[in-house]
Amino acid sequence: MNNSCVAHRGFSSIAPENTVAAFELAMEQPQVQWIELDVQCSRDGVPVVIHDFTFNRTTDGEGLVRETNWSDIEKLDAGSWKGKSYVGERIPSLGEVLDRCCGKVRLNIELKTQGDMYPDLPAAVIHEVRQRHMQHDVVLTSFEPKALAKAKEIAPEFQTGLIIDARPGDLVARLKQLQCSFLSIGYTNVDKSLMREMQHEEIQVMAWTVDDKTIMKRLAAIDPSLMLCTNCPDVWEKAFHETARHFFRP
């Protein structure tokens, strides 16, 4: 089981998702090679790391991210919902996360948008990454094709990837049209034929989101190049050790 372990929103089964606490905990795990995170823009154009379009679920605030200035966002408590030990944990800016992760782990940065909600998001994210010379340490992914096309137009050197939870017949054509070399796909859509097809096109595949040990081992057996995205890096580690014990059993 040599499949890369991708920590989904950090070590989010333990720490509050998309926070520095979750990212730091993930980076403490030797098996974690990648971290996946979500980025939107504040009203004043600051790229902020948060999944939902509102603050309601993961903070003590309410309202839309895109209608709130960064100076107000950074005051919110994004940790209390996960437990007393995370009271006061903040929503980080993308810049803060990049600074902490630079040279330690690679990043799958999801451009969290729909339609024309965030026309300036790709440029804002690319600016932050370029400032730190991390172009080759990140992949920009999104469900929204417009965001991927814009990112590639601005920064052809960046790796980009489509996120999808389906397997349409024209998947390869879509990826080629968008110039994507990465595919983030719901794990139930992954099988050997998909991996063969993507390898032929030199497209890296990541399966999301896998928290069950048995499913991890089944997916790992399909292809060692398949990246496994999980909320539970500790479960990935258990699956790895169980597979290793089976392989080396006398």
Structure description:
- The chain is α/β, with parallel strands linked by helices and 250 residues long.
- The protein has one domain (5-247): Alpha-Beta Barrel (TIM Barrel), CATH 3.20.20.
- Helices cover 33% and strands 19% of the residues.
- It is built from nine helices and nine strands.
- An eight-stranded parallel β-barrel has the order 1-2-4-5-6-7-8-9, surrounded by five helices.
- Helix 4 packs across helix 5 (145-154) and helix 8 packs across helix 9 (233-247).
- It is globular.
- The two termini are 18 Å apart.
- The mean pLDDT is 96.
Short description:
The chain is α/β, with parallel strands linked by helices. It has helices spanning 20-27, 70-73, 94-101, 121-131, 145-154, 171-177, 192-200, 213-222, 233-247; strands at residues 5-8, 32-41, 47-49, 106-111, 138-142, 159-164, 182-186, 204-208, 227-230.
Properties at a glance:
hydrolase, GP_PDE_dom, 250 residues, alpha/beta, TIM Barrel, PLC-like_Pdiesterase_TIM-brl, single chain, Glycerophosphoryl diester phosphodiesterase, EC 3.1.4.46
